[in-house]
Amino acid sequence: MESNQPALRDIGPAAIRRPRFKLPPELGIFGVLVAIALTFELLGWFLRGQSFLGNPTGLLIMILQVSEIGLIAIGVTMVIITGGIDLSSGSVVALAAMVAASLAQSSDATRAVYPGLLDLPMALPVLAGLAVGATVGFLNGSLIVRTGVPAFIITLGTMVSARGLAKLYTHGEPVSTLTDSYTWIGADANPVIVFLGCALFFHIVLRYTRFGKCTYAIGGNPVAARVSGINIQRHLIIIYTIAGLLTGIAAVIGSARAQTGQSGMGVSYELDAIAAAVIGGTSLSGGAGRITGTVIGALILGVIASGFTFLGVDSYFQEVIKGGIIVVAVVADQIRKQKKR
Amino acid sequence: MTDHDSRAAQAAGDAILLGAKDICKRFPGVVALNKVSLFIRAGEVHALMGENGAGKSTMMKILAGSYVPDEGELTLHGRPLKLKTPRQALDCGIAMIHQELNLMAEMTVAENIWIGREPVNALGLVDHAKLNSDTRALFGRLRIDVAPDCLVGELSIANRQMVEIAKAVSYDSQVLIMDEPTSAITEREVEHLFEIIADLKAQGKAIIYITHKMNEVFRIADTITIFRDGRHILTRAAAQMSPDGLIAAMVGRELNQVFPKEEVPIGEVALSLRGLSRKGQFRDVSFDVRYGEIVGMAGLMGAGRTEVMEALFGIERPDAGAILVDGKPVTFRNPRQAIQAGLALLTEDRKKSGLFLGLDVASNMDIAVLPNYTSFGFVRQKRLAADCEDMSRRLKIKTPSLEEVIGNLSGGNQQKALIARWLLNKPRILILDEPTRGVDVGAKAEIHRLVTQLARAGAAIILISSELPEVMGMSDRVVVMHDGRVSGEIRRADFSQEAILTLASGLTLPAALAA
User: Is any Cβ of chain B less than 8 angstroms from the Cβ of A23?
Assistant: First the structure.
């Protein structure tokens, strides 16, 4: 009665002891991205006689446009993995952009927010923007952890208040005429470099560090995480602060690229960021999600927007279709996951 | 009031390793622990027993840092110990295997075991190779056969429990608390666990062992402590206690340990399985169940018993074979159809697939029966409430009220509430998958009595259990499964542990044991 067979049997085919080749889970959603791009390519030939993908400038512009959403989505991915959510990102973009821009005005500015603080070295407005983002993030995390109120409600409150603060900051006046050193951040392909750099960094953190594993643990089973000795409160505060920081980076890049700071910036960015994360395979119930998936999710949103513009589709109609594509992409992925079980 | 046998204390000879003195812990509406003291010595296996709700798990959670006591103090090696978080307890050398499995299903076995203390390389990144090899080494030492890179969610409950055990051992702590570690594993794994415990004991570690199983206590425990209703009742050397004395102390009254098996008239065939198969799970399963009969299903972990029941109940579709109810072939596309045909299924893991932990007892009970009480879309509350109250009284469910959140009830009472859920439907065929897992002695006997009553009332019952005494005590016949196939059927007259275990291991019965 020494046979080991019963124990091995119920582990199932997945646990064979030789090193097994596992298909990366992002393959499915990458396939969706390719499918959508190819669809636009075909439609482009049919309807306009032009190649959608054959235009490198167009592709670069597309990735540029998703860089801001993408940066926010990285932070939101980590927040969702822990089982939380962050609705405040869009408003924080506005607030951080306003503050950063107000410190980045050049002496040519006709309406200076701080007449005494013109032509400041670019590092100052950048740090200010990041600080605003990180501070709001820290506030989110602390409130969620100390009050026990669900993240949805707390970040909803921050979302509303941050937008109000952004409007209050200059009583609705846009902040313009920014220094060249600041707007350089948004020039050429710099936003893409920042986006992909952050994506790579946090991908490594999530997959290869203790911090990353604890993040998955907290979302996967908070009780188990606690009894395993993880300091959940401290960890969550850090996660939300990071999400805020990334939102700050997005704000800096956005205001640099647009060469202005306006209180109306970032509207519904949080929803796009969450959509990118969910399309990319992040589970809203927590415990699962990958940065690589989120990047693909952001690209899918970018391809859709670019593709429709390329085809000359009415922008209102675009919104209608975009929502539908998001649902279809996630359902397709779900079905594939179900079949695998 | 308390009964610490000082002779036993001196006989153990060692100094007190971990002490708890006059601990009080209150929750809204209930005093969980009332001036309870407990003293653990190095190198001893200290069994902690008592009915559910006696305060055992609460006490252990205080020792493991999950709860902070309202009053009282803890000592470690004689020095005062203040624990505010599980991390502190782990750092002080106290590790715990919880009754409810605390694992992250989406992460691998290795990640689960070393979470929060993963080996890192020079760059500060997790060293996955070492993570897996450390796990293999640990499993090798403990002779556990699970792949480190397997997702915990893919493992059976029994294997998950082995992973939990390995995880607790890996902390190399001085005190190891085990809360019902054998509730989800079968005889062979239990033996294995006992070997691990003996090893740890030899290393001078202390083990606190919470269990309801009499035979386990007398096999491995050096000292026995009994709690009842949040109070310490007695602590005595195991050698000086008898099973009856134990039970009497636990329930405060004499209890008949013997399973109340009655002879019940057996009627027509209620349910027939013919050649039921499902790829990768079970093959060619055939047997009958008659009205009034209790058919036990025995087998080792992974034998496929639960999977067969899931196919029966419409949760999964079999690939081949037939199911006949009252002689007529049926296909259940979903559980609702099975319920309408008169079946009921009490699942194996109530936390995972039975309870709505956040809802009250009444909602947990009436969920499956709502259509019967609904007219024009509205639920007839009064009739429903009355029937729930009646059922709760019949099953003696211990709860302040039916509005109490079911998560606050003890395991035994949660199980009874789930049984009530099914009984409200008046099922003709009842499938019970490990109905007394994690249930105390008193509630267990009540559940057994209940099952017998149901058989007497004419229901056909399938009872899956990994506890041989339970299977043998309750059943008229036992169907034994091994590796997805039925390896044999044994009639009550021919019951023996050896026969059942032989068939469960896939061996053939020698002529002497065969029916």
Answer: no
